[in-house]
Specification:
alpha/beta; two-stranded antiparallel ribbon; 8-stranded mixed β-sheet; 395 residues; binds adenosine-5'-triphosphate; Rossmann fold; binds magnesium ion; 16 helices; globular
Length: 395
């Protein structure tokens, strides 16, 4: 039945105007929240531990003017020295504790056909972990859902201009990546943000004319070519991909040295991993020339102690044993809460729940990241042997 006077065009126009207002309010709220959110402060003992020296050494160098005077906060009657990750990295550089830098930039992608397995969470945590150690990281968000981008306080579609995602560097000119790189509150981390319109990039790439292909190079290698323009500025490029194997993900695979595949030990995820490997195998034989992947690792995530989980973990071990990382990430509320607040475990100052839960979560995350970094070091060392003259010193 037709309702007289119902004007869909008018209704939709009103809704879209209200929606725009809502988004702009949301942006103000999110950006204010992000501005207020600082990197956490640590005491001198923790700062010394991260740098790898004694707290007395830091005190002496501050006294001698090698390090800048520390920030302090008052705790009762005492003035306590505090340091955040950016200050810790600056101190590390001034203390010359980072003289040797990797000879090359390692590119890692987090990839899986399945959604919700922890791709974005682990991409973010690995980057924060590496930045904490003083490495320079570029994060590339290739997922139109833009979860990673919002973790850095940017609102897709509002605070990112149409030409500021990776799209134009894949469809128009690889140099355009320079325009899309944004600084973040971490001095060591830059970000190429994503937004919903990136969905069209997949489609646009496939529409490309033959002369585009000649000008821009083979389809799957567009991202690689764009990253080549900036790779010498970073030690690590970490790419987050959508839960699909379209052109964006294929470009990420073709740009990667290492594929990290988070996998949860449940039936559907195991089934989808079979699909994933079948598709990757086809892609790899079709585009063999374009690939540079040297390592594929599976990371078991969101594990718990339920009997089915244990059985599935045993099965996964049996099937993929040699690819599985030794460390795994258990299901933990601390991670859920932190990412719900658009932060990583490394960015929260005080545990949201029990301290023990927090410490367990951070220990597990550190172990996973340390293991991934061991693999990264293997690639760095191999590059050093290949090109001994190109070892870079200093930032
Ligand atoms: N180990 C964990 N413990 C608890 N929650 C987790 C864990 N890992 C991820 N999560 C939560 O699961 C949700 C999905 O994680 P995440 O966004 O990292 O997955 P994803 O693979 O990137 O998903 P998508 O494919 O949709 O991009 C998030 O809310 C995150 O907080
Ligand atoms: Mg994601």
């Amino acid at each position: 039945m037709l309702i007289s006077g119902f004007d869909l065009a008018q209704l939709a126009e009103n809704a879209s105007q209200r929606g725009r207002q809502l988004l702009s309010d949301l942006q103000t709220y999110l950006e204010r929240d992000y501005d207020q959110r600082c990197l956490p402060d640590f005491g001198i003992e923790k700062a010394a531990e991260i740098i790898g020296c004694t707290s007395q050494h830091i005190r002496d160098k501050e006294g001698g003017g090698i390090l800048p005077p520390p920030r302090t906060t008052r705790v009762g009657a005492l003035e306590r020295r505090v340091y955040n990750y950016n200050e810790i990295n600056q101190a590390r550089r001034l203390l010359k504790r980072d003289t040797s830098h990797p000879a090359s930039c390692v590119r890692i992608i987090f990839s899986n056909l399945k959604g919700g397995v922890g791709k974005t969470s682990h991409a973010l945590h690995l980057s924060h972990y590496a930045a904490r150690e003083g490495f320079r990281v570029l994060m590339v968000d290739l997922d139109p859902q833009a979860t990673l981008t919002t973790a850095f306080g940017l609102v897709p579609g509002l605070s990112i201009r149409a030409d500021e995602d990776i799209g134009p560097s894949l469809t128009a000119n690889p140099e355009l990546i320079l325009r899309s790189i944004q600084r973040t509150r971490w001095n060591e981390i830059d970000l190429v943000p994503a937004q919903l319109s990136l969905q069209y990039t997949d489609w646009q790439m496939l529409q490309a004319h033959e002369n585009d292909r000649q000008r821009l190079g083979p389809l799957p290698q567009r991202l690689h070519q764009a990253l080549e323009r900036v790779a010498d500025r970073y030690d690590l490029i970490v790419m987050d991909t959508p839960p699909a194997l379209g052109m964006l993900s294929l470009n990420a695979i073709a740009a990667a040295d290492m594929i990290l595949m988070p996998i949860t030990p449940n039936f559907y995820d195991i089934a989808s991993s079979v699909q994933y490997f079948a598709i990757v195998s086809q892609l790899a034989s079709t585009y063999a020339q374009a690939l540079r992947v040297r390592q594929l690792s599976l990371l078991m995530t969101r594990t718990d102690s339920a009997p089915e989980t244990r059985t599935n973990m045993t099965l996964l071990n049996k099937a993929y044993g040699e690819f599985l990382l030794t460390n795994r990430m258990p299901q933990t509320r601390e991670l859920q809460r932190a990412t719900g607040d658009q932060m990583s475990l490394y960015e929260i100052e005080a545990p949201r729940g029990a301290r023990e839960t927090y410490l367990k979560a951070i220990d597990a995350m550190n172990a996973v990241n340390a293991e991934i970094m061991q693999h990264v070091w293997q690639v760095w060392r191999a590059a050093e042997i290949d090109q001994p003259m190109e070892i870079r010193h200093g930032h």
